[in-house]
Amino acid sequence: MRRRTTIAVGLVVLGVALAGCDGVRLPFVEVQACASWVSYETDEERAAGSQAVVVTSSVESDGTTRIMEYDTNVYLVTVDVAEKGDIAAGDKIRVASTADACGTYPYGDAAGDPMLGSTPLRLFLFDEGGTWRTITPFDGVRPAT
């Protein structure tokens, strides 16, 4: 009976450690939370869910930053048209391309980062602590046609 109790207690402690609860952690085990992304059907819905919407034909790589504890690409964008928000045509803004840390592909499919698509692009943005980011990995960038 004592052996079964020891095994049961050991399994409970291991389960709690693997779950990352209450500071009990195993060495070399990383716990990662996954976001649940809103899905937008139309550009009108995307704009309503954004703090800013801009059109750009100039996207330059500008390093990386951490968004939701995940490294994401950042771009220097020259605004051609400001459709919503406190941004003006001609402004240069830094935009982080929000990525899905838990998906097989961080931007929804094998095509990669949508910020690297053909320009002009319409960007649906949210201010994340002073850094503009696309609203979701899947709906933050659309062709501006």
What report would you give on this structure?
- This protein is α+β, with helices and mostly antiparallel strands and 145 residues long.
- 17% of the residues lie in helices and 35% in strands.
- The protein has two helices and six strands; from the N terminus they run ααββββββ.
- Strands 1-2-3-5-4 form a five-stranded mixed barrel.
- Strand 4 and strand 5 form a beta hairpin.
- The protein is globular.
- The chain starts with a helix and ends with a strand.
Topology:
Layout: H1 2-19, H2 43-48, E1 52-67, E2 70-84, E3 92-96, E4 121-128, E5 131-134, E6 141-143
Parallel strand pairs: 3-5
Antiparallel strand pairs: 1-2, 1-4, 2-3, 4-5, 4-6
Number of alpha- plus pi-helical segments: 2
Q: What would the principal axes of the Cα set say about the shape?
A: globular
Percent range of helical residues: 10-25%
Rg, Å, rounded = 21 Å
Look at the helices and sheets and give the structural class: alpha+beta
Strand order in the largest sheet? 1-2-3-5-4
Number of strands: 6
Order of helices and strands: HHEEEEEE
What is the end-to-end distance? 72 Å
- Sheet with most strands: 5 strands, mixed, barrel
- Parts with pLDDT < 50 across at least 5 consecutive residues: 8-23
Tell me what portion of residues adopts beta-strand conformation.
35-45%
Mean pLDDT: 80
